[in-house]
Amino acid sequence: MHTHARPFATTLACLDRGIPPFHYMSRALVAATSAARRTRHSARRNSPTTRMRALEGRRACLLAHHGMIAVDASLESALELAVEFETLAEMYWRALQVGEPALLSDAEMATVLEKFRTYGQPRPGA
After folding, report:
1. Coil/strand/helix, residue 9
2. How far, rounded to the nearest angstrom, does the alpha carbon of residue 37 sit from its chain's CA centroid?
3. In whole angstroms, what is the distance from residue 100 CA to residue 95 CA?
4. How far, in Å, are 1, 82, 93, 117 from residue 56 at the CA level?
5. Are 27 and 112 in contact (CB under 8 A)?
6. What does each C-alpha distance from 54 to 57, 58, 61, 91, 99 come to in angstroms?
7. Range 71-74, long-range pairs (CB < 8 A, 24+ positions)
8. Is the dihedral of CA 91, 92, 98, 102 positive or negative?
């Protein structure tokens, strides 16, 4: 799903600002990747090839000076992801109004990803 209708994500894209790991959901929304810590890559040309590279190891990204892309198994789930991504973009934009938010380390983000593997699953023997 590609949209410009999400004002906070589009605002950050127009400012050429990614969404760094300031909140645990910044990694929960995207697949783990060692290539980059941010949820988007600058895609100045916004060509199909650049867009595909920006999505490598991710489920959503910002396109520089453009908007957002969210990818999932169905159009409905991609829309839900776009809404979650927009919420994250809004939280980051609001944090920037006060100052630069503290960022979570790779180790902290790895811990979050590990916890999400079993999140919402019943405990064995429970």
Report:
1. helix
2. 10
3. 7
4. 15, 17, 24, 20
5. yes
6. 8, 8, 7, 22, 27
7. 71/1
8. positive
Q: Burial level of 97, CB count in 10 A (0-12/13-18/19+)?
A: exposed
Count CB atoms within 10 A of the CB of residue 122.
7
- Token readout for 107 is 């180790």
* pLDDT tens digits, 65-121: 888 888 899 999 999 999 999 999 999 999 999 999 999 888 988 888 788 777 777
**Rounded Cα–Cα distance for residues 123 and 126 (Å):** 5
Helix axes 7-14, 75-98, angle to 10 degrees: 60
Q: Which residue has tokens 């973009």?
A: 89
pTM of the shown model: 0.75
Q: What is d(CA 79, CA 69) in angstroms, rounded to the nearest whole number? A: 10
Asked if 12 and 62 count as a contact pair (C-beta separation under 8 A), the reply is: yes
Domains and CATH numbers, the chain: 2-117 (3.40.225.10)
